[in-house]
TrEMBL record:
Record's keyword terms, sorted: Oxidoreductase
Domain NADP-dependent oxidoreductase: 19-346
Gene: tas
Species per Swiss-Prot/TrEMBL record: Methylophilales bacterium MBRS-H7
Record GO terms (molecular function): oxidoreductase activity
Protein name: Aldo/keto reductase
């Protein structure tokens, strides 16, 4: 389906990735090793060369499952041509207070980042990681369903909460690039201020410049269009969208059956981003629009994300091979101007219900 001519250049690097990326956060929990291999083999067969993982996967992160995704991928990689596959992984910072990761990462300091990279390389059974992300900022920012910046998050007991400077984070990442352990660096769940600081400090001190941003983007969450997309354009920064189906809401299954089998019901309380007023209304509106144009809601939702001018690659995650096949098939769908205009009208009536 995809060939090398379809691949997109990752900015500030010599890496090219497919317009679809395989997400793996179900591997090791909802998906067995055998099921994971089936998805990986299928992705490779259709020309997807980009695979996204993280040290804390599978999701939701748990002490008895984290790292399993990397281990599964590492075993699979032993039978593949490593140079043809682009592997992304991520270091977890302290904001989510996951004390069982590396004994509780207190910060994104040199020791924690280096230990995270070394452990990931060991599990992946490879000598290098192509794209290495900071999974989320260490500093106080709104994350995972929060949408307001709260200055009080910078304080504890009347004192300023310290965080490792962006300069120090970049210095550590620079050493890892020089050592050959990672090829290029990227950010995830980042905000406009942080993006520009990473650019400014890297240029000022001749440190590595980030190659990509990976944030949530879907019909229910287009907050990247406020501030971030201008940065993508002016800095020529690559963008990868995760959760393009909004935790399964944009398949429509939870509208048809509130108790439908899926991550929302398997992991109660984990999908708080989507437990907001306006989500169900928006999904119903988009579902009706898709039906009107003889599309499934899944097809329309994925085609919309892919059609955005700033999209480098869309991350697809699935809990079954059939789901993955349907998601990949949607890549060939082109939305008409009429459909895009109608999508915009719905968006204006219920804007970003799940930020």
């Amino acid at each position: 389906m995809f060939s090398a001519t379809d691949y997109r250049q990752l900015s500030n690097s010599n890496i090219k990735i497919s317009p679809l990326t395989l997400g793996t956060m179900t591997f090791g929990d909802q998906n067995s090793k055998i099921e994971a291999y089936e998805q990986l083999d299928f992705a490779l067969d259709v020309g997807i060369n980009s695979i996204d993982i993280a040290e804390l996967y599978p999701v939701p992160p748990k002490a008895d499952t984290y790292t399993k995704t990397e281990s599964i991928l590492g075993d699979w990689l032993q039978t593949q041509d490593r140079e043809k596959i682009i592997i992304s992984s991520k270091v977890a910072g302290p904001r989510r207070k996951l004390d069982w990761i590396r004994g509780g990462p207190s910060s994104l300091n040199e020791e924690n980042i280096v230990n995270a990279v070394d452990a990931s390389l060991k599990r992946l059974k490879t000598e290098y990681i192509d794209i290495y992300y900071l999974h989320w900022p260490e500093r106080n920012v709104p994350m995972f369903g929060q949408y307001k910046f709260d200055p009080e998050g910078d304080q504890k007991g009347g004192k300023q909460i310290p965080w490792v400077s962006i300069y120090d984070q970049l210095t550590t990442l620079s050493k890892l690039i020089e050592s050959g352990k990672i090829r290029t660096i990227a950010l995830s769940n980042e905000q406009p201020w942080g993006l520009m600081e990473f650019f400014r400090i890297a240029r000022q001190h001749k440190l590595p410049i980030i190659s990509a941003l990976q944030n949530s983007y879907s019909l229910l969450n287009r907050t990247a269009e406020f501030g971030i997309t201008e940065i993508l354009y002016r800095e020529q920064l690559s963008f990868l969208a995760y959760s393009p189906l909004a935790f399964g809401y944009l398949t429509g299954k939870y509208i048809e059956d509130e108790k439908a089998v899926g991550r929302v019901n398997l992991f109660p309380g984990y999908a708080k981003r989507f437990d907001k007023p306006g989500v169900r209304y928006a999904v119903k509106q988009y579902a009706q629009l898709a039906k009107k144009h003889h599309l499934s809601l899944t097809e329309m939702s994925l085609a919309f994300v892919r059609s955005q001018w700033f999209m480098t690659s869309t991350i697809l995650g699935a809990t079954s091979l059939n789901q993955l096949k349907e998601n990949v098939k949607s890549y060939s769908i082109e939305l008409s101007d009429d459909i895009l205009d109608e999508i915009e009208q719905i968006h204006l009536s219920v804007m970003n219900p799940a930020p």
